[in-house]
What does this fold into?
Amino acid sequence: MTTIYFESIQPYELRIPGFSKEGKHHLPQIFLGLLVGCNGYPIGYDIFEGNIYEGHTLIPILERFEKQFSIGHPIVVADAGLLSKGNIEELTKRAYKFILGARVKNEGSEIAEIIEGREWANGDLTISIDYQKYDNDR
It folds into this structure.
């Protein structure tokens, strides 16, 4: 999910000024959701009005993709922008598998110490840290 802005001052249909990650709040934009396959190639997309809050788009777009492509539950990989308590509850309630990026500073001191205490070599992606949280998340 991301925003795409247009170099125009005229809003039109879905192109409405809203929050912009590029700082272009005054320009019309749309909100784009993209579905990719295991190989990373795009399978489908959907768009929303440019002034919608991205946290409100996750479940509707998942349901549209499932219906449109008859794929069952996709695995959701999302950043902190979609990491709301409501979205996590909905994903869990609907039995989705998901990976959500979180900000270390929001995870509490115990998890922050584990992550910040780990020495990472440049390009070190083979070793992971799996930490079981109090609510069975990890």
Remarks:
- The helical segments are 58-69, 85-93, 109-117.
- The radius of gyration is 18 Å.
- The longest strand covers residues 28-36.
- The CA atoms of residues 55 and 87 lie 7 Å apart.
